[in-house]
Amino acid sequence: MKTIRWGMLGCGEVAETKSGPGLTGAANSRLVAVADRNPGRAESFARRHGVARWHDDAEAIIAAPDIDAVYVATMTESHRDFVLRCAAAGKPVLTEKPMAMDYAGALEMIAACRRAGVPLWVAYYRRALPRFLKVRDLVRDGAIGPVRMVITRHFQRIPTPEAMRGPFWGWRLDPARSGGGIFFEAVGHTLDILDFILGPIASARSFADNQAGVYPPEDAVTATFRYACGALGSGSWCFTADYDDECNEIIGATGRIRFSTFPPLGPPAGRPPLPIQLIRGESVEEFPIADPPFVHQPLLQTIVDEMNGQGHCPSTGESAARTARVIEDCLAEFNTGRAGRRQTASRPAP
Fold first, then answer.
1. Which member of 42, 200, 274, 289 lies 3.0 to 4.6 Å from 54 by CB, making a disulfide possible if both were Cys?
2. Total structural domains in the chain?
């Protein structure tokens, strides 16, 4: 198999700790060039990770003849533009999630790549992690019988004022750059992995609000779902709670499965994921499955393999767009109200 030569746009936190090392750690894969609008950050990343060259201009990556595929690791606001440019250049492209600022942008990206005849993947990397493959296999193999319902919850304390101004939360809590708040940016992982395990959500009904007023976007969401497979679902997410908790439960006719989307929230950081629990009557069976050091690497391996004609990546533009649609449906009323509030605030006083 040939070595896939990658170019990477953006050298921030995700690229540093999750995906950048995975591009070189995957078999038959090599990161040959990086670009960042901050040239110092690009140079530092390249030197520390042994990347041959760095740039401060994305076009140097997109147009390079020695780059086979481009990974977009920038903020959400720029994903659409970079994917469209990669499509125009005939370059296969992997973009970070959320794939776009809205569902319409996601559809535009899919259409552009389809017209250009290039694949589009989205970095919902949990679709390739062993612990989520285990949950999928348990459901698929009938360990809990036909699935009846899904219950998901995610409660989290408010970040400190210093953290909200910092590099991790600062842009994520700015809808102009991230597209929304913590629900928009983080809960997509849960909705996407449930799509992977159970199939698409056919319809969703939701309420969302900003209850605490400590930052502009949504901080509380409730929703109910109907999956195309017939299962029902409900979700509760509150990011101004007094404690950290996150769990998913898939309820079947003969048992249930509990698992978390994220490693345990709150201090100390770096704890391993909670074991998957298979509960049938009084029996509780646990599956403690750790994540790899660089969590993007298994998904990146599926992309490299697909480019070499050996299988397919499970996270595509089409699958990610389904998650984008559900998120947009959940936030539609809140975002409409926010737009109205902005319009009212911009009117001159009588």
1. 42
2. 2
Choose the final residue of a domain: 126, 158, 180. Answer: 126
- How far apart CA 50 and CA 117 sit, in angstroms, is 32
Rounded to an integer, the average pLDDT of 116-141 is: 98
Overall average pLDDT of the 113-141 stretch: 98
Same domain for 117 and 190, yes or no, is: no
Q: Which positions ≥6 away from 70 have C-beta within 8 Å? A: 6, 7, 8, 9, 61, 62, 82, 86, 91, 92, 93, 94
Query: Could you tell me if 177 and 107 lie in one domain?
Result: no
Range of the domain at 225: 130-291+326-339
Residue 339: the pLDDT is 53
**pLDDT tens track for 131-151:** 999 999 999 999 999 999 999
Instruction: Please report the DSSP string for 27-54 in residue order.
Output: TTEEEEEEE-SSHHHHHHHHHHHT-SEE
**% residues pLDDT > 90 (the chain):** 89
